[in-house]
Write a structure and sequence with these properties.
This is Threonine transporter RhtB. It is a multi-pass membrane protein. With about 210 residues, the protein is mainly alpha-helical. The chain has nine helices and no strands. It has one domain. Helix 4 packs across helix 6.
Length: about 210
């Protein structure tokens, strides 16, 4: 199947997705906060809404990058190199500031599930950092010379969502234990931050060396 990346590329992308899913951010804060204050149903609604926002971004990025590749392989290469430096920046930020999970206490009121879902969509759909991430991260796993790069970009975008949903669902089902473990283990979180930074740096270096050759 022409849309499937090589096994080693998919394996590397899977490892990256795992670290990214486990990195606390606004979406994780929202769906875990909803779970702890309003129940698992609203936590699931928040998580699915956040995933829908990511689906939109990944598809827009895949179509846009595919069109850019068709129009100019050079421009696509520039995007990839810029993405390498962005990945290095992400790694530096992880080391400097670390991961954070800040959950706000609820006021006792439960918003309708539909409203929670839409709020989840907005968390990622209106986040410019998500746009930047998909524009610079996805291209790291395709070759400029690959005639099927467009279909592979779309596959990777959808794969990242499908991969993250069961993990996030497990977090919701074990929200109490998961959040307590994160709060009690600052050393483990620092190890995770360095692993994340190392992985981002490895992808960036691999790309820059490939371009240099």
């Amino acid at each position: 199947m022409t849309f499937l990346p090589a096994p080693e590329i998919l394996a590397a992308f899977t490892v990256a997705c795992l670290l990214l899913v486990l990195t606390p951010g606004p979406d994780m804060t929202f769906f875990l906060g909803q779970t702890l204050t309003a129940g698992r149903a609203r936590g699931m609604a928040a998580m699915l809404g956040a995933c829908l926002g990511v689906v939109v971004h990944s598809m827009l990025a895949a179509f846009g990058l595919s069109a850019l590749l068709v129009a100019s392989a050079t421009a696509f290469t520039v995007i990839k190199i810029a993405g390498a430096f962005y990945l290095v920046w992400l790694g530096i930020q992880a080391i400097r500031h670390g991961s954070a999970l800040t959950l706000k206490k609820g006021d006792g009121r439960k918003a309708p599930i539909s409203q929670v879902f839409l709020m989840g969509v907005g968390i990622n759909l209106l986040n410019p950092k998500v746009v930047m991430f998909f524009l610079t991260f996805l291209p790291q796993f395709v070759s400029v010379s690959d005639p099927h790069a467009g279909s592979k970009l779309m596959f990777l975008g959808l794969y990242s969502i499908a991969f993250s949903i069961p993990i996030c669902a497990a977090m919701i089902m074990m929200a109490d234990r998961f959040t307590d473990a994160m709060r009690r283990s600052p050393r483990a979180m620092r190890i995770f931050d360095w692993l994340f930074a190392g992985l981002m740096g490895t992808f960036a270096l691999r790309l820059l060396l490939a371009r240099g050759n």
